[in-house]
Amino acid sequence: MRCPFCGHLEDKVIDSRSGGVGDVIRRRRECEGCSKRFTTYERVEDVLPTVVKKDGRREPYDRQKLLRGLRIACNKRPVSTDQVESTADGIERMLQDAEGREVTSAELGERVMRRLRELDEVAYVRFASVYRSFRDLDEFLAELGKLVKAKGP
């Protein structure tokens, strides 16, 4: 494993433990070149569906793209990195359990929004505002109204 600090290729594993629901192994490593420590995650590479974009293009599913979107939505919110990772893991499990080998970007976006709505309402609204690309304030307020109405008194 290449050290993220100095690029040295030799390291030693200091600690290993199961993460999430047992589908990830978290390893603490120490670089033998600079002695700095870093964490790696090991997971089974699953066959995930292809994402069909609105314009018909097909892209392989990209976990990093999903995580980037979740992190941006949850930025400066009381949501931990573990919660973001767990949310991504849950979405991936749903994708693996899906029947087909393809999923539309619209369906994927809706799944992300459902998860974010449960996790943090502000993160949900942030993600929805980009994902649904509201054209004006009225559309944005209508979405907020739905959120408030669903929450109830």
Describe the structure.
- With about 150 residues, this protein is α+β, with helices and mostly antiparallel strands.
- The chain has two domains: about 1-45; about 45-150.
- It has five helices and six strands; from the N terminus they run βββββααβααα.
- The strands form two sheets. A three-stranded antiparallel beta sheet has the order 1-2-3, with no helix packed on it.
- α3 packs antiparallel against α4 (about 120-130).
- The longest helix has 17 residues, at about 80-95.
- The mean pLDDT is about 85.
Please indicate the percent range of residues in DSSP E strands (runs of 2 or more).
15-25%
* Record field, number of beta strands: 6
Counted up, domains total: 2
Residues in helices, as a percent range: 40-55%
Tell me the major beta sheet. 3 strands, antiparallel
Structural class based on helices, strands and sheet pairing: alpha+beta
Low-confidence stretches: none
The geometry reads as: globular
Which sequence of SSEs, written as H and E, runs from N to C?
A: EEEEEHHEHHH
Summarize this structure briefly.
With 153 residues, the chain is of the alpha+beta class. It folds into two domains: 1-44; 46-151. The chain has helices at 63-74, 81-97, 105-119, 121-131, 137-151; strands at residues 11-19, 24-31, 37-43, 50-52, 58-60, 102-104.
